[in-house]
Amino acid sequence: MAAITITEQNFEQHTNKGIVLIDFWAAWCGPCRGFAPVFEAAALRHPDVTFGKVDVDAQPGLAAAFQISSIPTLMIMRDGVLLAAQPGAMPAAKIDAILTKVRGLDMAEVLRNVKPELAVTRPAAVGGR
């Protein structure tokens, strides 16, 4: 499945269930453009994962809510919980390894250990709790 465009309006719809890998990017960013084919290829290899792209210029509220200060930045979420964020382009093998680890997580255990204020599906800046 190809990557989808994530906006403030559809963020919760696409991130509240399952595994989601989000690429924060911009059209003017050379490393972002170079990473795009790697991200798209990973989306095809992992049809069980939602791959989303957030254009930081078109969605400054999302970029601000997640304190994106460097692009590309990749975020991994599962069932509405932000698990990690990593600035910089990532090689295909690392994406595959991260997704393998996230698939193996016991989310009941994760949710027992996460601080309640972190277990939100949307940051407050985009209408979250």
Describe the structure.
The protein is α/β, with parallel strands linked by helices. The protein has helices at 11-15, 30-45, 60-65, 92-103, 107-113, and strands spanning 4-5, 19-25, 50-55, 73-78, 81-87. Strand 4 and strand 5 form a beta hairpin. The longest helix is centred in the first third of the chain and has 16 residues, at 30-45.
Number of helices: 5
In terms of quaternary structure, what is this?
A: single chain
Strand order of the largest sheet: 1-3-2-4-5
CATH superfamily: Glutaredoxin
Number of strands: 5
Helix and strand content put the structural class at: alpha/beta
Structure keywords:
22% strand; Glutaredoxin; 129 residues; 5-stranded mixed β-sheet; alpha/beta; 5 helices
What does this entry show, briefly?
This protein is an alpha/beta fold and 129 residues long.
Give the SSE layout.
Layout: E1 4-5, H1 11-15, E2 19-25, H2 30-45, E3 50-55, H3 60-65, E4 73-78, E5 81-87, H4 92-103, H5 107-113
Parallel strand pairs: 1-3, 2-3
Antiparallel strand pairs: 2-4, 4-5
